[in-house]
Amino acid sequence: MKQRLLLLLFAAAIISSCSKKLKTIPGRYAATNKVYSQHADSLSQTLLAENPAMLTDSLGSPIPSEWVGTVNFNLRKPNYVIIHYTAQDSVGQTLRTFTLVKPQVSAHYVIGKDGKVIHMLNDYMRAWHAGISKWGTISDMNSCSIGIELDNKGNEPFSTAQMNSLLILLAKLKKDYNIPTANFIGHGDIAPGRKPDPGIRFPWELLANKGFGYYSDIIIVPAPANFDSATALRLIGYDTRNLPAAIGAFKRHFVQREDSTTLTQFDLDVLFNVYKKY
């Protein structure tokens, strides 16, 4: 009984600690920090509920059931990192968006042009950043990923300070949650045709060189004559139901020469090179 109580208290402490994450930001965010705390506390009560399954058979008769707490469990952990750009004018505007109910959007982290990192949601919580998306067989990316928003309109370079902070954050997340190298991707990858971020200017090659995602090698082996590009895109993870959109998303991430939805011979060679890494 004592061991079970300690485990439940530990789980509650993890969730309740979420309410402390934003208390270092003073002033105008005090009210939204309070809402965060209240919501986290409510979730902790849900987590600690000990309700047996209330089931009935086809005749409406209750099926015997009870609650027996297992001692073998932990919190679910993120397995992907999804990178976005904010497409807004400032970090302040983004924080305002993420602290209003109406937009129904959020992220775990926001990184400013000056390199400042703002943690907005405990990593074990489910943020609303991916939207309608798909990667491989996963159709609910919000439930298995961490969302990182970079202060950038999408038509400008990413600052050195911002990228340095991103790389340090990615290293921490990769270590903390044992995230596979292939699972650092962009919003545009999981929502082709709907979202382009982090865009054609994002330095994916830099990230790949640090172990966060894959990128094409410098020396590219030509694709064979019978190379099936649609199948390769699908096996990488792209949703190919809208094939032109998937091609565009691939090119923004791995080719980064032009924003188009057609594959040149060079693009096919790059695709073949990248496909072999997955």
From TrEMBL:
Recorded superkingdom: Bacteria
SMART domains per the UniProt record, alphabetical: Ami_2
InterPro entries: Amidase/PGRP_sf, Amidase_domain, NAMLAA_amidase_2
Keyword set, alphabetical order: Cell wall biogenesis/degradation, Hydrolase
CDD domains noted in UniProt: PGRP
Enzyme Commission number(s): 3.5.1.28
Pfam families xref list: Amidase_2 (PF01510)
All copies of domain N-acetylmuramoyl-L-alanine amidase, residue ranges: 68-199
Protein name: N-acetylmuramoyl-L-alanine amidase
